[in-house]
Amino acid sequence: MTRTLRNALLGAAFGLALAAGPAGAATIKVGVVAPFSGPFGVVGKSFKEAIEVYQAEHGKTVGNDTVEFIYKDLDQPNPSQSKALSQELIVKDKVSFLAGYFFTPDALAVAPLIDEANIPCVIFNAATSAITEKSPRYVRTSFTLWQNTVPLAEYMAKQGIKKAVSAVSDYGPGIDGEAAFKTTFEKHGGTVVDTIRMPLKSNDFAPFMQRIKDSGAEAVYAFLPAGPATLAFAKAFNDTGLRAAGIKFFGPGDLTQEPDLPALGDAAMGITTSFNYSRAHDSAMNKAFVAKHKEMFGSYDSVTFTSVGAYDGVHVIYQMIKNGGGKIDGAKAVESVKGMSWESPRGPLTIDPDSRHVTQTIYLRTVEKVDGKLENVEKQAFPKQPDYGYKLAK
Amino acid sequence: METMFGIAVDGVAYGMILFIISVGLSVTLGLMRVVNLAHGAFAMVGGYIASYAAQEAGLPYAAALVVAVALTVLATLPLERLLYRRIYGSANELAQVLLTIGLTFVIVAGINYLFGPTLKRIPLPDLLIGTVELGPKAIPTHRAFVIAAGAVTLLGLWWLLERTDFGIRLRAAVDDPAMAAALGIRTERLYLATFALGTGLAALGGVLGAELLPLEPYYAIRYIVLFLAVVAVGGAGSIFGSAAAALALGIVDTAGKYLIPSFGEFFFYAALILILFRWPHGFFKGRTA
């Protein structure tokens, strides 16, 4: 009771303060749904930090309007919970934008809501290609597995690798990765000798290593969701002598995301990945981005791909507000950013008008030690990569 | 043939790791009749202490291991005094489950707050890095070390529980606490010592198994099913039963994943169901040791 009362009073006070402000000024609210606690809590933290960095750099106002972020915690993939939280944001908090969404099912669950309420939804992460097909109000500033895998598979084929094996976690994104790899690699003359789907909850990877070894492949394409399984996989790869046997290790950059690198240790050295962002990306803008994190939060250890996903997502939201001149109409707002191009800490970005997903440079990186810290060092860039998976899956 | 050999070696190696991280639970569950769901949390605490000792304090691996086991035991002894003592005995099963799962959540949140949600590692000494050749099959040196450590633990526990005065008193205290107390056995002290043994073994397992089950705050919840499976199949309180169960499950799981990876954990749980169907009390029925 007292809490409701206090909120009501606060609301009243806030309302008065607003009324006293300059004419026409309003607060535009953005609801962010992401994991802020639990095993994936580090994701929500990186979202929030990136948002705060963006607001520190670009101010909290667009025109006369103040942009306010409201955070909702969704600690694990849970579509119904995602829908409930998003609905609460729309109905109760009256948000003009939805944003965040780390897991694919959570992002998919809000499609009917954003269509009914006519609200744009800016996805900071969820990487399954099919998501943006489900509603014209989705915009995505992260990456997809197809986007990362196609250039990697082409690169592998160009390196003269003839026989490769894919080993992916047995769930949506893993299967996307496997399909993207197999299609592209075989198109360029390679052979995929075995496709291994590993249970998500595997602890011991020795049997898969034995299978990779027995397949006679020269290289392995691996995808696992970031976390303990990835660590165990990379370790097993080294420990069972596959690396010593000269088998090359490739995968999308989720494998070697920055917060996990210290734990991977030297086991990660030399793993080649393709990804849209490396913390070690050499540009003035990225250096400033990383430095601002250090300045505001004391450390830049949490800066990784989810940080730029959120940072660029906020940029798109600011642009939509600007384009609407303070009035937000969901469908028009999305329309107004189609084809928008800008420079991000990760490089040049363009929102593809068709898929509403960012076309971006994908980098080929190798894990190396930089000033005693393991980093993904960029070796090669493949500019203007679209989402190859859009409208491909049935 | 080579494949069979490979599966056998990998399976035994995985099984031994399962054994070493589950045997502590077998001690508390079987000998003290406490469903200690916080076992995983204790293992995790041990792992984190070792990680901190090795990385921040710069201790060598062996020293970090000893420090981790000692500190975990010291840190959990007050818990025995304050909490566990109240829930001993099979009449308190619901209280045991509620208390220990609550304790697990507290430890998870505490570790998350203190060390953050990222993965932690325990750096291995050079001696344990690399591979050992076993005929056509190479296994990681660290795993060979864990197998050896598991064998030593197995024999040591057997000796302690079957061949020492402590073991005799403990078995007496478990079978009939009132009678044992009447004969002058100080059951409270015995229970305290056994609890310490259980948490010490948990910490040992947490440190040695960290290469396979990486340390992160949700370790405590993520792997508890695995530990319970091994103890249930082995028969609570039976040291040899735990070892047999861990090896059987390790080999079945490895073979299944190698031959038909897309079936996932199917073989592990199918084996679990079949074994418990045939031997509802586990391989070695819950005798005291």
UniProtKB/TrEMBL annotation, chain A:
<dbReference type="InterPro" id="IPR028081">
    <property type="entry name" value="Leu-bd"/>
</dbReference>
<keyword id="KW-0732">Signal</keyword>
<feature type="domain" description="Leucine-binding protein">
    <location>
        <begin position="27"/>
        <end position="368"/>
    </location>
</feature>
<comment type="similarity">
    <text>Belongs to the leucine-binding protein family.</text>
</comment>
<protein>
    <submittedName>
        <fullName>ABC transporter substrate-binding protein</fullName>
    </submittedName>
</protein>
<dbReference type="GO" id="GO:0006865">
    <property type="term" value="P:amino acid transport"/>
</dbReference>
<keyword id="KW-0813">Transport</keyword>
<feature type="signal peptide">
    <location>
        <begin position="1"/>
        <end position="25"/>
    </location>
</feature>
<keyword id="KW-0614">Plasmid</keyword>
<dbReference type="InterPro" id="IPR051010">
    <property type="entry name" value="BCAA_transport"/>
</dbReference>
<dbReference type="Pfam" id="PF13458">
    <property type="entry name" value="Peripla_BP_6"/>
</dbReference>
<keyword id="KW-0029">Amino-acid transport</keyword>
<dbReference type="InterPro" id="IPR028082">
    <property type="entry name" value="Peripla_BP_I"/>
</dbReference>
TrEMBL record, chain B:
<keyword id="KW-0614">Plasmid</keyword>
<feature type="transmembrane region" description="Helical">
    <location>
        <begin position="144"/>
        <end position="161"/>
    </location>
</feature>
<keyword id="KW-0813">Transport</keyword>
<keyword id="KW-0029">Amino-acid transport</keyword>
<dbReference type="GO" id="GO:0005886">
    <property type="term" value="C:plasma membrane"/>
</dbReference>
<keyword id="KW-0812">Transmembrane</keyword>
<dbReference type="InterPro" id="IPR001851">
    <property type="entry name" value="ABC_transp_permease"/>
</dbReference>
<keyword id="KW-1133">Transmembrane helix</keyword>
<feature type="transmembrane region" description="Helical">
    <location>
        <begin position="190"/>
        <end position="213"/>
    </location>
</feature>
<keyword id="KW-0472">Membrane</keyword>
<keyword id="KW-1003">Cell membrane</keyword>
<dbReference type="InterPro" id="IPR052157">
    <property type="entry name" value="BCAA_transport_permease"/>
</dbReference>
<protein>
    <submittedName>
        <fullName>Branched-chain amino acid ABC transporter permease</fullName>
    </submittedName>
</protein>
<dbReference type="GO" id="GO:0022857">
    <property type="term" value="F:transmembrane transporter activity"/>
</dbReference>
<feature type="transmembrane region" description="Helical">
    <location>
        <begin position="12"/>
        <end position="31"/>
    </location>
</feature>
<feature type="transmembrane region" description="Helical">
    <location>
        <begin position="37"/>
        <end position="54"/>
    </location>
</feature>
<dbReference type="Pfam" id="PF02653">
    <property type="entry name" value="BPD_transp_2"/>
</dbReference>
<feature type="transmembrane region" description="Helical">
    <location>
        <begin position="61"/>
        <end position="79"/>
    </location>
</feature>
<feature type="transmembrane region" description="Helical">
    <location>
        <begin position="94"/>
        <end position="115"/>
    </location>
</feature>
<dbReference type="GO" id="GO:0006865">
    <property type="term" value="P:amino acid transport"/>
</dbReference>
<feature type="transmembrane region" description="Helical">
    <location>
        <begin position="225"/>
        <end position="252"/>
    </location>
</feature>
<feature type="transmembrane region" description="Helical">
    <location>
        <begin position="258"/>
        <end position="277"/>
    </location>
</feature>
